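Task: encode each sequence below as structure tokens.

Item 1
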Amino acid sequence: PLWQLEAVSRLMEQKSVKAAISVIPVFSDPMQVLAAHPEERLVAITDRPLFQDWLRRADQSWASLIYHGVSHQYGKMPDPFSGMSGDDFENIENYFAGKAFVGTTIG
């Protein structure tokens, strides 16, 4: 919830703590683990202006923003958990198959 992010911001500013925030600009919940409605399975950061405002304020005062992939998940399957953005390893199946990315071999 945004109120928790605001509380974190106040604490970071009070303590003069600098931090990095990894941003995943598209939230994907293909298996509808958290999404209450089908239309919430894919939510772009541009659909959340209050969150965007919070990110801008954090970036201007105490944080560095890191682009952390578009959706940070892999297709419409558990990988290996819920398939939801930020919950899985997005390419764990490729990793165990010996491929870092499609067409690229690990090692």
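Item 2
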Amino acid sequence: ATMAALLQNHARLLLTLNRIDEARPQVERALALAERYIGADSVDVAGIRLTLAEIALAAGDGAAAQQAITMADAIYAARLPATHPLRARADLVAARVALARDPDAS
């Protein structure tokens, strides 16, 4: 779990630096480790999926971003109350994905 968190943080740093092509493999590796060692339905996995959605969005892959946010949101809905701050982050990422996929929706 610690390695997955480090990889996710590294991916987020790369995303911030706009090094999208380098960020995606890091977050995908983090996701694989987290799913294997802490479970595919864990809150940590949902957070990694949010990072994956942000990276996919930055890469212009709206379909992959939507898939990642949908999976993250399902985990959060099952595990966290509606008022939890992590749910708010998911809502923000989902809104960015929706806006990117349909700019006329705003």
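Check on item 2: The mean pLDDT is 94. The longest helix spans residues 20-38.
End of task.
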